[in-house]
Amino acid sequence: MALFSDIESFFNVKNRLRGLVLLLVFSSFGLSATPILILGDSLSASYGMPENQGWVQLLREKMPNSSIINGSVSGETSAGGLRRLPALLESAQPKILLIELGGNDGLRGFPPKQLKNNLTKIIELAKAQQVKVLLSEIMVPPNYGPRYASQINTVYKDLATEHDVTLMPFFMEQIVIDPSLMQRDGIHPNQKAQIIIAEFMLPWFEQAL
Fold this sequence. Notes:
By secondary structure, the protein is of the alpha/beta class. It folds into two domains: 1-31; 33-208, 3-Layer(aba) Sandwich (Rossmann fold). The chain has helices at 2-29, 55-62, 78-92, 103-107, 112-128, 146-163, 191-208; strands spanning 34-40, 66-70, 96-100, 132-136, 166-168.
């Protein structure tokens, strides 16, 4: 009887140790990857190349413990992103949102006030669901004039201050001045530039995590 008791105790201890080991293993890998949503335009949508060659896919490979959902659409404006965001938030349930919108607003000469209103609503929707927001600056072509460019730039700086969100420098700033990194249209980064963008993005997401 004493022997049975000792064997029973042995297996109870063994099972507890096994459970502890499994708990540590699952904890080390994480029960689920951290969901990150990217809400952008053609600069993030792998325009002009297969999706698996774009910077978002390259970033996925650098962040295996995160689940990166690319909600970017070529030609997207801030108004279009705002319309699509509620469904994306519901399906992706992200912890982090990167907003990369406004370039097409600028190309179409939309009023800066309209851009700010749309981006404000996007930020408010995300923060209402406890989503951390990264906001990327954008640039408009110089032919739109320095006044318009300055107004657009001010929109992003004001939003970052007013809503306490992280403002990222425009990731195309150094790429757009290098023709070897641009597609023939002079607007979109080529395949060679994608790894540069991914490496630029990585520390911003790591810091947010």
